[in-house]
Amino acid sequence: MELKEKLIASFMAFENLVDVDSPIHDVRSEAIKQFEAQGFPSKRDEAWKFTSLNSILKHDYSVFPKRDHHIDYNDIKKYFIDDIDTYKIVFIDGQYSSHFSETTHDGVDVCLMSSALSKPKYRPIIENYFNKVATKDSLSALNTAFSQEGAYIHVPKNKSVAKPIQIIHFSTGNESALMLQPRNLIVVDENSHVQIIERHQSLTDNPVLTNCVTEIFVDKRGILDYYKIQNDNENASLIDSTFINQKQESCASVHTFSFGGKLTRNNLKFYQNGERIDSTLKGVTIIGNKQHVDHNTLVHHIEPNCESHQDYQGIFGDSSTGVFNGKVLVNKEAQKTNAFQANNNILLSDKATINTKPQLEIFADDVKCSHGCTIGQLDDSAIFYMQSRGIPEKEARALLMYAFGNSVLSSVKIPEIKQRITNIIANKLGISIGFDL
């Protein structure tokens, strides 16, 4: 049985496991119909022209994993940002782990989607925000149909979350192949602030396919800092769709660090519904072997006097493939828009590939918008100069690549995250460094 048919057949069993009186029961039912009609995207779809899912859809994924998922803390400690105090929402094979988590309802709600879906006190938030900004593409619809577990974060008006929040999904390898579909809902009310760190991590070499959807709402003068660390095993694939709806004078930034995994597709969509909004999308990709990373972004400028900044840097070695498809859409009413978009790439191998397509669609006449992309190799003359000053070639190449990604790392607001990413980059490049970026 093909995966599409298996998922459609599994939906009825899933419905029997969850509450049919759930506030999203009808939403789930409609979503599975959308997925059945559309199926998985293919390279015939313009948005997926350079990314094929065929290699990851061939496995016989388990849709309902076993609940026997005991793991030892020493096996996962290294994946936490443990040098700062954080709230933690930890999932193991799709199931919440209270043992490794630290949630709260003290002024803010940092808890589970399953709790929010089942308890009446959360129903107003669910009815007002769930599935309101996610697009109706087939993979988002599939996630909506099977929505049950994930992170639920609500920051009420005039609140600043005291410490960052880590959302971590582990897969244990208890299944020969596993499909996970976490759903996150994050609501940041007026004048509130939150920092979030997200990671998906496989603990074995068994194939894992994660289809994750995150909906984020940032109200007036709200501030969101979101960090995605993607450094999974090379048999794990991730389709990550994040949708952000911003209101007047809010600031939202998403930093995506893609270093691991077999296939990673990041769909990141910003919708600016108000004036004086600031949106930041930045990313660093360093991959090799036959890895594939695809960034598909959209910033929709709907009202005037707003800004957006996109800066994606990629370093591709061996037979790896990178894709960047970024769009800035400026409505006729969105005068005085200031939008910047850049995608810069270095190819370290003759077999590495990058497909880049920055786009501007501007219907206003008083804007300041720019976009561009570069594809090249390391500067041999710069390497020679550094070697002449006593720096070995390997370290010289690494220093140039660090400098290449510095425009992204310089805007990271959590020093411990910056240090962690610096260490991951050093490890990817096979060097030891004695400085921080």
Descriptive keywords:
ten-stranded mixed sheet; 2 domains; 437 residues
What is the oligomeric state here?
single chain
Number of helices: 10
What's the number of structural domains?
A: 2
Using the CA coordinates, give the radius of gyration: 21 Å
Give the overall average pLDDT: 92
- Helicity, as a percent range: 10-25%
User: How many extended strands?
Assistant: 20
Contiguous runs where pLDDT drops below 50 for at least 5 residues: none
**Morphology:** globular
The run of helices and strands is HHHHEEEHHHEEEEEEEEEEEEEEEEEHHH
* Global structural class: alpha/beta
Strand content: 35-45%
Summarize the structure.
By secondary structure, this protein is α/β, with parallel strands linked by helices. Helix content is 23%, strand content 37%.
Would you kindly provide a written description of the structure presented here, covering whatever features stand out?
The structure is a single chain. By secondary structure, this protein is of the alpha/beta class. The protein has two domains: 3-273, no CATH class; 379-437, no CATH class. Helix content is 23%, strand content 37%. It contains ten helices and 20 strands. The protein has helices at 3-17, 25-38, 54-57, 73-76, 113-118, 123-129, 138-145, 380-388, 393-409, 415-429, and strands spanning 87-92, 95-96, 109-112, 151-155, 165-171, 178-180, 183-188, 193-202, 208-218, 223-230, 236-246, 251-258, 263-272, 278-287, 292-301, 307-316, 321-330, 338-347, 353-362, 368-376. Strands 2-1-5-8-10-12-14-16-18-20 form a ten-stranded mixed sheet, covered by helices on one side. Strands 3, 4, 6, 7, 9, 11, 13, 15, 17 and 19 form a ten-stranded mixed sheet that branches. A hairpin with a 2-residue loop joins strand 1 and strand 2 (95-96). The N and C termini lie far apart (50 Å). The model has no long low-confidence stretch (mean pLDDT 92).
